[in-house]
Structures are given as C-alpha cells and as structure tokens.
Amino acid sequence: MNWQATLSWQNAQKRAAVLHKIRHFFAERKVVEVETPALSQGTVTDVYLDAFTCQYNFLANSSAEHSVSLFLQTSPEFHMKRLLASGYGCIFQIAKAYRHEEFGRYHNPEFTLLEWYRIGFDQFDLMDEVAELLKTVLDCNDVASSSYQEVFIEKLAIDPLTASFDELVQLLAKHNKSADWLIDSGDKDLLLQFIFTELVEPTIGVEQPQFIYNFPIAQASLARVSEEDSRVAQRFECYYRGIELVNGFNELTDANEQQVRFEQDNAKRTALGLNTRPIDENFIAALKHGLPQCSGVALGIDRLVMLALDIKKISEVQSFSIERA
Questions:
Q1: What is the pTM assigned to this prediction?
Q2: Distances in whole angstroms, Cα of residue 211 to Cα of each of 26, 151, 226
C-alpha cells in the first residue's frame, strides 16, 4: 500500500497560486464565490455521464426502512442555476465533482471544477472571458475559434450537419477507425462524437487554445438553440495541448423545452439498455420560476493546473489519486 501523496509539496504551492489567481480574476470582475451541495435528490440524465449514488434514510418522505437515493453531483450546474433563479447575480464556484468513470491520464472520478455564470452574456461574451482567464493563468497566446461545422469541413472535408450515417461510416473506414459497435448502433450522433474525439481533437488547440462552438443540438441538452441555425445549439468547448479544458453554454431557460430534452435523454438511455435517471424537479421548478438570460461554463481545475505546471498526469496535481484515496 502506498499512502503517500501524489501531489508534491512544491506543486501543491503552485496549485494554490493558480487558485489564488482565479479568485483574484473574479474578484476584480465582482463575480461572487458561492458554495452548493455535493449531494442532491436529482442528477443529470446525460447518456454519457453516470453519477455516484448513496442511500439516505432521514428525509421527510423516507424512513429507516425505506431510504431514498441521493446523487453525488457531476457538476454544480443545477444548484448554481437555482441560485440565479433565486435572484443571485453573477457567481462562480470552485467545487468537487464526481463521475463514475474510468480513471486515467486526464481523468479521476473525483475532481475539481471551476464553474461560473454571467447574467446577460451570450456564448461569445463568455468565450472572451474564458480566453482572458486562460491568458492570466497560463500566459498563453491569443485563442483561435471555429464552429463545429467549420472544423469538420476544414479537418475532414465533411459537413457534420448534412452528412448521412453511411457517409460517416465511410469516413471512419477511410481513417481506419471503423468499429462494429459504432456501426451497429445506428446512431449518427454517436458516430459524430467518436469522429470528433478520434480525428478532430488531436489536431486542434496545439499551439494556442482553440474554441469550438455551435454543437449539434443532440450534444447540447442544456444550451439554447441557435437563432441563426436551428440544427445547432449555443454550446462551446476549448482545447489546448491535447486537453479538453472547458465546456460552456448560452443557457436554456425554457422549462418545458428542458423537460422534453431530459425525457429524450432517458428514452435514449432505455434504448441503450441503461438505467434511466430521475429528472431534477427542483431544477425544473427553478426554470419555471424564471432563470435570467445567462451563459455558464465549467473548467477543469486539475487539467488547468496540469497545463500551468507542464505535468502529464492528473494524479500528480491531486493530493491523492483514486488508487491512494
């Protein structure tokens, strides 16, 4: 058994300095730091995210004999939007998040997220602010940006919004990336996500951070539909030196549309043989009460520290990896 820390004392001090820079960045902009629960009665319905669960016996609608399930949050998003609906102004949080997934070079099931919300910002306003934060922490070059559609056309000579399932299968074969499980799925969106991960991601954000924006609606269940192109939603990501660092949205505020998208997620879960997830009714109620127009973004603190310190494994920027926790 190895009980020692995976984060050295020297790098712990450097990590603390990064966190100090982040808090100073938001203090200058009068964005207020908040805290929200790690445990919730609701969770995400996203097909590709799984939350940890535990049992609790002391809610009003439970008893010692009949517990209810609580979920460790995959991000603080729903709670933070409930704060906004309650009348809060612009807010940020540095929070632990938990995802039931395999650990590796860039992944640990427990990790730290920076998440913030800006009232009155659209996705491009927030992309600009993310860029300023990255330059502050990483001292990097100016950022690049491309739409999801543009980057597919530039890198792969195919339009992801019009390509058929068969055309995407042919593209995979051309790049020796075919897999029976992908083809058998019959799921165009799954093919697009696989192609993006395998063929696009390695080519972007190499010399400078690169934003990709306007993802297909099926990949952006919490984002507003674009007014210019109803096939896409106002979601963005940022990549730098092989790392997916940022995921942001011009937030969907329509409670009815959000309910439909959650139900569609659960229908897809059922079709794939996965357990459905309870829809977060507190979140839906907050949207019905009224969420101000805003944009929000989540940034992986551990990955940011990896880039700032030029470290190659996430375990070396966390005090204890899951293997030593």
A1: 0.94
A2: 21, 10, 17
